[in-house]
Amino acid sequence: MKIEILFPEFCNLFGDMFNMKYLKMCLPDAEFVETALDETPKFAQEDVNMIYLGPMTEKTQEKVINKLLPYKNRIEELIEKNTVFLFTGNALEVLGDYIENEDGSKINGLGIFPVHSKRDMMHRHNSYFIGEFEDIKIVGFKSQFTMMYGDNSENYFAKVEKGIGLNKESKLEGIKKNNFIGTYIIGPILILNPLFTKKILKMLEVELEADTKIALEDDTMAAYEARLKELEKL
Fold it and tell me: Does pTM top 0.85 for this prediction?
């Protein structure tokens, strides 16, 4: 199994690189490849099992868009082939139609999903999140200068119970298409949500027996349950 981590030297805000450090603990026999921004992505030349991209600065977003644009068709192909993707924080924005600055200027994205984002660099949005994904609850946090707009009613990631969706008026968070998941939720989401980590492993076709535990499962489940109860009271 090969998992590609895109541009970890830049796309590593909010401690979200611990998503991959934790996944390594859950998949000790998997090959994790870190691709730098000046390197050709492995997924461009070969099939990989999973692609991860974490949160980044606004300037880095433009560099990442320029880097990934030649591989737009390949990314779309891999999404259709059910390759697992996890994009966290503002990483999802690079796959939208455009990112709009406060002055109205626009940065074209890859246009893979029919959404767009608007920046408000003088006002950061911070909030807690609880949402429902399939048969589990997702907990986490949001910290962002942007809001996303577009219709994700047919391909949202999680239905909001507490917090916001793509924007303050939306109750549908993120995008899920086949095995692609893009979400603004940070935390890191895999450590905060061991049940979701098991969902990712299932997407990767990792067979877990009923009594098989993932890395640090007792501790992460205890923390998850305590956090969920705490956030539900807020």
Answer: yes
